[in-house]
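User: Can you recover a sequence for this backbone? Please restate the input before giving your answer.

Assistant: Of course. Working from this structure:
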């Protein structure tokens, strides 16, 4: 008898022999599977029933269901008598599983390549029938495989097998869906890290467990991702975030890591390492550049650590960690990891005292302006100055704006102080203008001033009283100042530009808007923040490069802030920056020194001719 005929005979005999038993049990068994599906019983229960029925349908064979997961065939269920390699959670790569290729055929296990390993391993079974499991949507989710002691006879063993296949596919699909939903509910889909909701749950669990609460919360703020998003687009920003998250997850110290909204990752560290040490470890991991779209990009992480405080909820805890991260970011040269301490958020009594002293500082003559040279690239000829406020506070000494401008903004004092700065800068610049010295002066304008009803008048008065040519006054505004009220800001800016006043967009790259939005803003110059220079130090500066290129496409000259080294200067020449403002070409200095420098340069220029 030819082999095929033999299978046919055997398969029919097997069916005949088991039919009486099945006839009674069939409806009952299938009913059990349906009920299992309908009640969303655990997947292994439903599949357990399916393999049992399949084994019986094939006449006392061994049946198994494999699920296809992450390119592996995992044994999800196997009927009684299955050998160990066929019992969950065993898994195998599809290429090494010869039954994966069968697709509804039966073969003798010694007959084809690849079977040798399995011959004699399937509990004495010699034949194998297998078919893939396909969902209604056409997705392949696994296979139903039967190992038989003798050859089955039909290409497709029975209608019942078809039905079992469908049920198995349905069960797997259902389980995958539930798992997918659960994953989505607890994870951030971009990075695969936990999400904020899960972080909150984790904290509650730890609190309930008592005692074992984590000692610190570490907040990693990936400033590079935000910048990449603005310049290279959302997808590249996500890619950076994903890779950064991958590096964090590989660190044993990282413990429980969750992505918060935006480009922040919160970490509840494992183990007893000191927070500072953990911060350093994280920074180190994020320090190497990321290769994205053929660019080398830096994560520019700032890390804030806040120790646990009893009775605090997650929001309060995060607020402290965030304040520490902001302090880390503000530390221009120091470490990028700061541990929260109460002095970071100025204590209320100290703030009140400082506010009291700041009030009326302008009237008492305690404010002064320093001037920092802005020079042309190439050549370094003086192009103008930025006026930077200083506060000579009695008994304290010279205070930098970083220490008082934020408070001045919060209290509204910045409007009065800014008004003074406008008047003083115009007065000084007019003196230089009359002397024939470079007299362009940049004056910082805060969001509050721009929104103030008297702002237009303040500017007009400063120009009128000084007599300065309006074109020489350049008002520096930040993206965020404009964003607070785009329509109003744009209207005021347009009106002032009609007077001849110019606008520079300050701190470009630290805000939240994008180059695409830039073309709608009435600005005359782009001031690029110094944060891009750190990128440069480590090699190429793709972000800076594209900012300069795109600004030029929009017809905007670019001034780069914070150039400190000759290497950076050379790069500015190479990248085509128009001007530079930085310690290399001049520190902020009192008006007298600034004037002396301008005169010296003018004399040198004359002797050159
Ligand atoms: P800004 O407008 O970005 O000013 C540039 C800051 O960078 C200045 O800090 C300047 O001293 C510093 N800088 C310049 N070149 C370099 C460099 O090569 N390396 C480094 N590390 N830093 C450099 P400063 O004077 O402390 O002012 C800080 C901020 O305070 C200013 O940032 C500005 O936002 C604000 N500010 C200053 N004066 C005024 C003002 O009159 N009104 C208002 N609203 N804000 C002001
Ligand atoms: Ca500025
Ligand atoms: Ca700036």
């Amino acid at each position: 008898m030819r082999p095929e005929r033999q299978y046919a005979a055997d398969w029919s005999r097997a069916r005949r022999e088991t039919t009486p038993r099945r006839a009674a049990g069939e409806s009952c068994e299938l009913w059990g599977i349906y009920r299992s599906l309908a009640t969303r019983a655990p997947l292994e229960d439903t599949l357990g029933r399916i393999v049992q029925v399949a084994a019986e349908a094939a006449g006392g064979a061994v049946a198994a269901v494999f699920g296809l997961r992450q390119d592996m065939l995992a044994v999800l269920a196997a009927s009684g008598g299955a050998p160990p390699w066929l019992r969950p959670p065993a898994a195998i790569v599809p290429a090494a599983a010869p039954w994966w290729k069968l697709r509804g055929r039966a073969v003798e296990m010694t007959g084809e390549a690849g079977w040798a390993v399995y011959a004699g391993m399937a509990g004495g079974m010699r034949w194998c029938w297998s078919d893939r499991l396909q969902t209604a949507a056409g997705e392949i989710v696994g296979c139903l495989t039967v190992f038989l002691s003798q050859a089955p006879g039909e290409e497709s063993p029975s209608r019942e097998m078809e039905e079992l296949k469908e049920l198995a596919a349905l069960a797997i699909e259902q389980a995958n869906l539930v798992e997918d939903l659960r994953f989505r509910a607890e994870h951030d889909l971009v990075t695969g890290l936990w999400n904020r909701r899960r972080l909150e749950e984790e904290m509650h669990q730890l609190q309930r467990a008592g005692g074992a609460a984590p000692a610190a919360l570490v907040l990693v703020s990936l400033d590079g991702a935000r910048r990449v998003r603005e310049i290279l687009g959302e997808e590249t920003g996500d890619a950076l975030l994903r890779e950064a998250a991958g590096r964090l997850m590989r660190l044993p110290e990282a413990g429980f890591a969750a992505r918060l909204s935006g480009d922040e990752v919160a970490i509840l560290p494992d183990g007893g390492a000191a927070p500072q040490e953990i911060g350093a470890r994280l920074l180190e991991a994020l320090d190497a550049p990321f290769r994205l779209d053929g660019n080398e990009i830096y994560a520019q992480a700032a890390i804030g650590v806040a120790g646990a405080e009893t009775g605090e909820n997650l929001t309060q805890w995060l607020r402290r960690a965030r304040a520490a991260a902001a302090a880390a970011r503000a530390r221009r040269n120091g470490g990028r990891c700061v541990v929260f301490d109460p002095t970071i958020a100025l204590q209320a009594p100290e703030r009140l005292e400082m506010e009291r002293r700041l009030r009326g500082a302008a009237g008492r003559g305690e404010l002064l302006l320093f001037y920092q040279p802005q020079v042309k690239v190439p050549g370094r000829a003086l192009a103008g100055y930025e006026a930077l406020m200083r506060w000579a506070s009695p008994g304290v000494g010279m205070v930098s704006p970083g220490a008082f401008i934020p408070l001045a903004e919060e209290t509204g004092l910045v409007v009065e102080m800014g008004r003074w700065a406008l008047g003083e800068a115009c007065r000084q610049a007019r003196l230089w203008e009359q002397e024939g010295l470079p007299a362009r002066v940049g004056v910082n304008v805060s969001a509050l001033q721009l929104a103030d009803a008297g702002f237009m008048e303040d500017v007009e008065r400063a120009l009128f009283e000084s007599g300065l040519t309006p074109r020489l006054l350049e008002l520096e505004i930040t993206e965020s100042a404009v964003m607070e009220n785009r329509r109003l800001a744009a209207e005021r800016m347009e009106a002032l530009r009609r007077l001849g006043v110019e606008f520079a967009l300050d701190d470009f790259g630290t805000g939240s808007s994008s180059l695409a939005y830039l073309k709608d803003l009435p600005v005359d110059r782009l001031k690029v923040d110094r944060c891009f220079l750190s990128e440069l130090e480590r090699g190429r500066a793709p972000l800076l490069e594209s900012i300069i290129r795109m600004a030029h496409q929009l017809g905007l000259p670019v001034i780069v802030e914070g150039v400190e080294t000759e290497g950076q200067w050379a790069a500015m020449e190479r990248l085509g920056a128009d001007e530079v403002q930085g310690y290399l070409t001049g520190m902020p200095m009192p008006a007298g020194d600034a004037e002396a420098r301008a005169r010296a340069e003018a004399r040198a220029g004359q002797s050159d001719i």
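That completes the design. The pocket of calcium ion (ligand 2) is lined by residues 386, 444, 476, 506 (CB under 6 Å).
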